[in-house]
Design a protein that fits this description.
The structure holds two protein chains of two kinds. Chain A is built from 16 helices and ten strands. In chain A, helix 6 links the parallel strand 3 and strand 4. Chain A is an alpha/beta fold. Chain A is globular. Chain A has a six-stranded mixed beta sheet with strand order 1-7-6-10-8-9. Chain A has a four-stranded parallel beta sheet with strand order 4-3-2-5, sandwiched between helices. In chain B, strand 3 and strand 4 form a beta hairpin. In chain B, helix 10 packs across helix 16. Classes of the chains: A alpha/beta, B alpha/beta. Chains A and B meet through helix 11, helix 12 and helix 13 of A and helix 1 and helix 3 of B.
Amino acid sequence: MNAPHKGITLFNDIEVNSGLKAAIGLSRSDIIGVIRDSGLKGRGGAGFPTGTKWNLAAAATKHPKYVVCNADEGEPGTFKDRVLLTDFADYVFEGMTIAGLATGAATGIVYLRGEYRYLLAGLEAMLAERRSSNLLGKAILGKEGFDFDIEIRLGSGAYVCGEETALIESLEGQRGEPRNRPPFPVDTGYMGCPTVVNNVETLALATCILAKGADWFKAIGTEKSSGIKLFSVSGDVERPGVYELPLGISIGELLTVVGGEGAKAVQVGGASGRCVPAEQFARALAFEDVSTGGSIIVFGAGRDMLMVAKNFLEFFVDESCGQCTPCRVGNRKLLEGVEMLERGQCSVAYLRELAALGETMQLAGKCGLGQSSANAFLSIIEHFKDEILGRDVVAAQ
Amino acid sequence: MANQPTNPSVETSRAPKSQHAQAVATPDQNAGIGAMVSVTIDHHELKVPLGTTILQAAQKVGVHIPTLCHHPDLCVAGVCRICVVEVAGQRTLQASCAYPITQPIRVFTHTRKVRQARRHVLDLLLSEHYGECYSCFRNNNCELQGLAKEYGVDHFRFGHPDKPAHEPDRSSYSVIRDMNKCILCRRCVRTCIDLQEVGVLEATHRGSETTIATFEDKPLADVVCINCGQCINRCPTGALRANDPTDEVWQAIDDPTKHVVIQTAPAPRAAIGECFGCEPGTPLTFQMNSAIRECGFDKVFDTNFTADLTIIEEGTELILRLYKALVLGDKDAVVPQFTSCSPGWVKYIEHFYPEMLGHMSSAKSPQQMFGAVIKTYYARLHNLDPKDIVTVALMPCSAKKFECNRPEMADSGYKDVDYGLTTRELAQMFTEAGIDLPEMPKSDFDDPFGTATGSGVIFGATGGVMEAAIRTVVELVLGVKVENLFEHADVIPVRGFEGVRYAELPLGEKFGPVPELLKLNKDLPFDSWDWLKGATLKVAICHGTANAKRVLEDIKAGGKFSQCHFIEFMACPGGCLGGGGMPIPTSPEIRAARAKAIYGEDAAYEIRKSHENPAVVKLYTEFLTEGPCGHLSHKLLHTGYTPRGRYIV
């Protein structure tokens, strides 16, 4: 049933709105129970259990509550949410509606990446269609007291707004900068109200789980990482694209599927992810091993890994929100270090210093993105130290 | 939280309410009230109210955690990351200033990870901070410098700029901004937007390009900056400082042809000791007089003299305004009347509520009245050519520098006040002259303005102008001793640090005769107080422009404050004693200590009511013979305002 393949077939046997119809017959706690039993974890990369998140928001006493769909797909190398929003947006809207029912929220907001503006008209048309079919609005599908509607807001191009609290700041009309946590959005989110922020894929999967049951989902994947995951595969492969694969699949298996055998390294999780070298291709793509929001960038044998690190660091130097010291200045120092390595001017001692700085960035950054911004650099200098320091010799000659 | 100048309403604030001041549970979080949580900090075990931050808990048991972006007056930022600590069970380090304790936790404040992270944060900040410590006014009073010492920084691990990358913005008369020294802690942003709600400074750009800028990066002089200087008081480094005229003042002192006089405002004397290692709230008024003479000033006067004069002029204006509005129904007489002594407040209303300028008292501030009196009355009295007189004003204020440079402030025919000095700058002059202020002998102010009253002194604290006005109004209008109404003449209802205070004073049915002082003014339209019979005087006091905004909006909406007759506004939290020219640092506790010193000084004065100041009475008999608000008064002691608006072209 779940043979590895390119493209999305997940929804083929799930009728639109069957998930919502199933949810309507259930109590709030039962809906959350189904999601919890399925083991669904956030598909944006952090892997927070979705059932727990919904439960926290449902238990919050403040009102109103909000459901926010994080469609600010900005992680380099990720494009699976674009496919979902292009071809399967109904399932996403349906998932938001289910989340609204489960948590008691009456408003859903899609935070759409600014670059996806071209999708806006189509999505608005679908929302209008859903309203006229009583799938949104007052007393949805005749269920008294179940009111929910969805609006779409556009992002403006800042990577950091994919971080949920920065996204909320942006929604409120502020500069997109992550907030201190705690408090968490489920307690104090949009406009200070309890807010569920879920990734596009998470919401679409919630719909499927309601339609087909927790057991169906749990049967796929590993014990700690149940279900299907969409992977955006790019780089030195024969067949780049979006793949629907069970979690727990090894990197090597994935490379076979996409035609990326012979790769030297794979960047899992985009710029904020980790670079996995060939000798570790047996590792599993799962929350308990190599976690990912879906971005898989494959580097062939000829790639210069120092340039890979440089590319990611240039990205963070530009895309750090600029609030906290470790991320704002730290990434610049790491980039300067890479440039020194490039020129053969970086001593091993200073490289060690930079590695320690990287650790500080992971520990002391204010938000998840700041904390992960040194990951790529650290994993590359760890696994490709010989190659990187070897350049110095070449350059020195 | 009574001492917090933060505004009570958060709708206009950017920070989410939950993070505005992460502290103990408030009445809207009923569930949290009274709940205590256990926390272990290193080897200290304690219980704290739910929601206390790790930093606050650590302070309770004397565990020192370094801070940079945190400030007791400001909302939480959690951006510098110097205060990180390890919380057992958490993968990452937590910013102790921003982490509310809601369940039992164990905290470690100096583990390897913590020490490494703090040192890295410092190294990263120093890699971008152009630290020319020798030539920096914050040398030895810089939080970054202090931390570098605390953490044993002995080399610049990640480099250090060897030349400035930005031209400092010197456009403003009051505030100089030097981005070379900025460490992006955003205290200035939170001060300007959240504390004062002026909103001149904001973070712009992102990533490594992040900077603090004005609108379109225009010079400070060209934006809606009100010159309050609260950002200076809260900047941890030397990125913000006041425009310092000490060189020019020394030059005038050194010039034998110049007669250099200084007037000293009440607030600096209660705080200048802090620059010499004294505890906040150590009054050094009379030592300061000797030190000033030691520097070479020819005369030292007490601004309290013109504070008393302000009470007479502004009070008379209020009475005339009320008569016109209540009795004659004159639409141009707008009530309530607003005080006009705080130049930061004046510029605030000119920018943000120009349509309400009709409420402003036309009386000049005490500083400017003094300048005009010195270059006219005093010059005549001592047979001096006004062009040879240099008037210096010692002020707790950065906005006074702008005020004395307003083009209209030349009613004496000369620039009324030549230089505005801050408390910090005068302290610098003292050290330059080798003066150890606390050890100086005591000496009094010079005549003819030597005698001051306690009412002038309390101008330095929020509510002081109102208290002085009430003391005088009660006696002049009701004809009874103010002590009969308020014990020791302490008008307690208007004192305190609450952001906005409101008080009522029923005038009753018994009035005294119209006093001779007022009758000097031949245009006085009444000869008895009958028209005030049964009236209740309603007043309000407000400090910090965020609170001013609330009051002005309330007046526009026809609320409670629109029923007031007189409202005191001060731009700075705490009034002048929290001014932008006062010693750094500032905190609610420091401001409270300064207030205590000011009220203590008031109580020590023999004469505590402005209208009893013999020098003031003498001025009206000898010089301003047409009485308060008379023709000459209007020329010298009153002014007009400029509707600036928010948009500057």
